[in-house]
């Protein structure tokens, strides 16, 4: 199958390398140093899903229409990347692999005649250097769209991706995005402190803030009428219990998540953006919780403080100490 990958960073690089290894004809889009490295040496892939050097076609934008496309940029880059490639995305299935709640709505405004599918990745990949990505923790990908049953396009894309990694079409994709948003509350503390996800959760002070942001997210979701979808053991009933726990007891959830990630340090995708001098997705993660809370007239003080702290730090390139990070408000 002819596969197009837009945005060949950690996730795009992983999908591109694995589909190339499985024999698909893969074309990728990249820019700057990343594009130069892939064009010169191929795309180097290693880590938990094996090793491969993919000799993919690489260019700044797609030069032909593929049978299936994956858009794997950060949320803040998605609109521009979709616009730049719109000509070759018309009428085909376009899978947007992206955290946050807005991926499909943004894409629908730019590609009204594509078959849009959202995808939530629960594995962890790292952009090691231009043209080199590594998988630091395995996990499944969930594909779907909207509130109902998964479309034929979602099932078929899950079938293709399922050839190379665990991938499932899921109903209630909106609920799945919220469940993933709860998971992504592990991203901010590493991005604020420069520590890995495992290190931040092992630190009692930072872990309290992670737990508080997760619990706040869960509560805002429930108050907004969200029915959380089941993703990798996290379900609506479990999150209902979690949302009512005191902080000391709720801490067991991020602790379990960190344990599942294993011993290879997982930086999380937000810290990786900072390390590469890129803007972060904070407005689409913790910021999405603040906006959802505002929409129902509720405050989200923990997530608002995290967003504010990140906005202050991003332009400086500096990090908080664990003491400073642990002093963020929790409730
Ligand atoms: N990494 C992870 O473990 C996980 C990430 N996710 C989510 O997946 C999505 C992708 O994340 P991730 O792979 O980590 O992000 P990366 O930053 O590693 O990769 C995104 C890539 O897109 C490229 N890009 C941006 N705009 C364009 C454009 N217009 N044309 C071509 N390329 C472009 C960037 O280029 P450049 O290198 O020049 O910046 C970058 O290489 C995010 O929503 C993230 O939250 C979900 C689960 C796990
Ligand atoms: C699943 C997780 C937390 C993997 O690191 C992720 O989604 C991210 O880093 O953005």
From TrEMBL:
UniProt-listed Gene3D superfamilies: N-(1-d-carboxylethyl)-l-norvaline Dehydrogenase, domain 2, NAD(P)-binding Rossmann-like Domain
Per the record, the pathway is:
Cofactor biosynthesis; (R)-pantothenate biosynthesis; (R)-pantoate from 3-methyl-2-oxobutanoate: step 2/2
Q: Which ranges carry the Ketopantoate reductase N-terminal domain?
A: 3-146
Matching entries from InterPro entries are given as: 6-PGluconate_DH-like_C_sf, 6PGD_dom2, ApbA, Ketopantoate_reductase, KPA_reductase, KPR_N, NAD(P)-bd_dom_sf
Superkingdom per UniProt: Bacteria
Give a GO cellular-component term. cytoplasm
Per UniProt, the enzyme's principal EC class comes to oxidoreductase
Give one GO molecular function term. NADP binding
Give the GO terms filed under biological process for this record: pantothenate biosynthetic process
Which reactions fall under this protein's catalytic activity? (R)-pantoate + NADP(+) = 2-dehydropantoate + NADPH + H(+)
EC number(s) given by UniProt: 1.1.1.169
> SUPFAM superfamilies, alphabetically?
6-phosphogluconate dehydrogenase C-terminal domain-like, NAD(P)-binding Rossmann-fold domains
| Oxidoreductase recorded as keyword | yes
Does the keyword section mention Cell membrane?
Answer: no
Identify the residues that the record assigns to the Ketopantoate reductase C-terminal domain, covering every copy.
Answer: 172-313
Which keywords has UniProt assigned to this entry?
NADP, Oxidoreductase, Pantothenate biosynthesis
Homology family: Belongs to the ketopantoate reductase family.
What does the record give as the function of this protein? Catalyzes the NADPH-dependent reduction of ketopantoate into pantoic acid.
Q: Which NCBIfam families match?
A: apbA_panE (TIGR00745)
The protein here is known as 2-dehydropantoate 2-reductase
Supply the source organism's classification: Bacteria, Bacillati, Actinomycetota, Actinomycetes, Micrococcales
């Amino acid at each position: 199958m002819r596969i197009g990958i837009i945005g060949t960073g950690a996730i795009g690089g992983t999908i591109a390398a694995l589909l190339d290894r499985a024999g698909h004809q893969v074309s990728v889009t990249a820019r700057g140093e990343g594009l130069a490295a892939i064009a010169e040496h191929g795309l180097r892939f290693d880590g938990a899903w094996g090793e491969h050097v993919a000799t993919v076609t690489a260019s700044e934008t797609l030069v032909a229409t593929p049978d299936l496309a994956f858009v794997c940029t950060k949320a803040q880059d998605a609109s521009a990347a979709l616009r730049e490639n719109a000509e070759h995305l018309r009428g085909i299935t376009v899978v947007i692999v992206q955290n946050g709640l807005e991926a499909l709505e943004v894409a629908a405004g730019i590609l009204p005649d594509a078959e849009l599918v959202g995808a939530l990745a629960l594995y962890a990949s790292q952009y090691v250097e231009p043209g080199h990505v590594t998988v630091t923790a395995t996990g499944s990908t969930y594909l779907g769209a909207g509130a109902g049953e998964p479309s034929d396009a979602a099932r078929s894309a899950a079938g293709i991706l399922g050839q190379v990694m665990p991938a499932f079409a899921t109903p209630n994709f909106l609920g799945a995005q919220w469940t993933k948003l709860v998971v992504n509350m592990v991203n901010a503390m590493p991005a604020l402190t420069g520590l890995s996800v495992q290190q931040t959760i092992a630190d009692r002070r930072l872990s309290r803030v992670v737990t508080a942001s997760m619990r706040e997210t869960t509560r805002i979701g429930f108050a907004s009428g969200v029915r959380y979808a089941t993703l990798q053991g996290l379900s609506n009933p479990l999150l209902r219990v979690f949302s009512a726990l005191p902080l000391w007891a709720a801490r067991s959830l991020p602790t379990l998540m960190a344990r599942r990630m294993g011993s290879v340090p997982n930086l999380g995708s937000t810290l990786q953006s900072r390390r590469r001098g890129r803007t972060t997705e904070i407005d689409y993660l913790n910021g999405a919780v603040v906006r959802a809370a505002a929409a129902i007239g509720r405050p989200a003080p923990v997530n608002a403080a995290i967003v504010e702290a990140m906005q202050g730090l991003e332009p400086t390139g500096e990090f908080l100490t664990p003491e400073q990070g642990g002093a963020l408000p929790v409730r």
